[in-house]
Request: fold
Amino acid sequence: MEHISKYLTPEIKLSSYDDKLFKSDLMFDDHMLIWFISGETKIIQADTTFYFKTGDIFLIPRNLLATIINYPKNGQPHKTVVMHLSIERLKKFYEKIDISKKHTIEQKIYSFSNHPLLESCLASVSPYFELKGEFPENIASLKITEAISILREIDKSVDAILANFDEPGKVDLISFMERNFMFNMPMEKLGYLTGRSLSTFNRDFKKYFNITPQKWLTEKRLQLAYYQLSEKKKKPTEVYLEVGFEDLSHFSFAFKKKYGVSPNKLMLLDL
Reply:
């Protein structure tokens, strides 16, 4: 896989993947505003799946768990312009703004497909990637401020996400894990998202599930894979990434060990 990233500043980059696909389970520390130049992306969350293509624009809030699968398309690489909307940047933006109406915070992906204001803002950044030398911070700041202002103009409820600077609070561990077991995250990050230190996370997990987190995660992923293969009639090559495995051969080995039949053989038995 060849991945190329060109940075104007640490907050603005041009990202390109030239291989067949690239999959990652992510939880961003910053809000990410993304514009597609070419290629396709599939984003899988606990209860929904998004598909984005050339021209689409979307915002991924920070601390949102998602599986992201990037595909080249029609001989073109998967290429995007990405803006990091950092907490520091947003605090400066909102410090003089009175947000009178409080909106309920909903951790979701915001889609702004082909919106002319946002597209114009992000497209105007593209030529700068060909410049030599250091890009002026004051111009980068103006472009990011413009993007935030446009987001607020398009959807007023976005303030609930962008102006929320709280850290995750303690949540119900059982409910959280049942919804998010398919995401490959370090245990430290899972602890952070549930409002726990790593030691407290491991202690609470053993208390509620009576098993180690890794063993429980593997079992849940294999159960979901069995359902996807037998009931949804999906192919193993479609399933293994979506349920949380990184490698097809490892998935096939673990699946056969648990169910006594390979994923491909199970498909044939169900025909």
Observations:
- The radius of gyration is 21 Å.
- The chain is about 40% helix and 20% strand.
- The chain has a mean pLDDT of 90.
- Strands lie at 3-9, 12-17, 22-26, 31-38, 40-44, 49-52, 57-60, 66-71, 78-85, 110-111.
